[in-house]
Design goal:
With about 70 residues, the protein is of the alpha+beta class. About 20% of the residues lie in helices and about 30% in strands. It contains two helices and four strands. Strands 1, 2, 3 and 4 form a four-stranded antiparallel beta sheet that branches. The N and C termini lie close together (about 10 Å).
Length: about 70
């Protein structure tokens, strides 16, 4: 992947081991990547490097998305 390229990690799960822990392990093994903002603040779903959608809160299936950028 070229520098500044983006990698999306997404699951249909709320399992921390499958979501945040996999993301953390990847970042630990690949220092050439860094978390980057998934959505703009105006989306109203959080402005961080990951988004977790929940059925009872967002009316969707469980969805986890993390965006990583190669530096």
């Amino acid at each position: 992947m070229k520098p500044s390229g983006r990698l999306v990690y997404a699951t249909c799960s709320i399992n921390r081991r499958e979501n945040e822990e996999v993301r953390a392990a990847f970042l630990s093994a690949h220092p050439e990547f860094e978390p980057t903002q998934v959505l703009p603040e105006t989306a109203g779903l959080g402005a961080g490097a990951e988004v977790q959608l929940l059925p009872h809160r967002h009316g969707t299936d469980a969805i986890f998305v993390a965006l990583l950028r190669r530096v």
